[in-house]
Amino acid sequence: MNETKEYYQNNAQAFFDDTVNADISEQYDRFLKYIPNGGKILDFGCGSGRDTKAFLLKGYCVDAIDGSSELCRLASDYCGILVKCMDYYDLSETEKYDGIWACASLLHIPKNEMPIMLSKMKKALAHNGVIYASFKLGDFEGNRNGRFFSDVNPVIFEEMISDVIGLVKVDEWFTEDVRPEKKTTWYNVILRKN
Fold it and tell me: Are the CB atoms for 166 and 22 separated by under 8 Å?
């Protein structure tokens, strides 16, 4: 994880510039239908702050975190709220959020640690709260271009969540990267706490 954090710290501006204008409104729509009007959302690994800003503009109450202090600074400036710099593993809230938005962030967690992370996220959700997560489609796990990645597919994801009691998959779909120069297929999933 240290190499990944270092990557984002050293490439924060380039990453911000590459992602801040990506239009993922389809993903927003599929997530937000589970969130009450004005509900509380945690942007878990907010990167540029693009999604935090979009949710704020739609009237939601948003907390945002990221592991890179430099990305937190850029995102705070962009979205207008203070983005908290913290390690994902330090999430310790209890029944606070109607939704947790983890867009391309859990993909940096090793597969064998995903049940621990999802359990922490489940604990942070209010009753019937939901988690949105997106991963690069595949089965690769390891370092790629200076960052650690866990690519998943539906079968791998089912295995990862099988030990997490109280989370039910309510939606899954595939999307192509909206940035024309990127040739990535994404696996998107929504889990609900029950």
Answer: no
> Phi/psi at 119 (nearest 5 deg)?
-65, -40
Measured between alpha carbons, how far apart are the two ends of the chain, in Å? 31
Q: How far is 82 from 121, CA to CA, in rounded Å?
A: 21
Q: Taking CA 168 as the corner, what is the angle to CA 165 and CA 169, rounded to the nearest 5 degrees?
A: 140
Task: Quote the Cα angle for 172-174-177, to 5°.
Answer: 140
Task: Read off the pLDDT of residues 138-188 as tens digits, 9 standing for 90 and up.
Answer: 999 999 989 999 999 999 999 999 989 999 999 999 999 888 778 899 999
Nearest-angstrom CA–CA distance, 144 and 77: 29
Burial status of residue 12 (CB atoms within 10 A of its CB: 0-12, 13-18, 19 or more): buried
With vertex at residue 29, the alpha carbon angle to CA 28 and CA 34, rounded to the nearest 5 degrees, is 95
Query: Does the predicted model carry a pTM greater than 0.90?
Result: yes
| Nearest by Cα to 128 from 161, 167, 158 | 167
Place of tokens 């391309």: 104
Nearest CA among 165, 168, 166, 127 for reference residue 36: 127
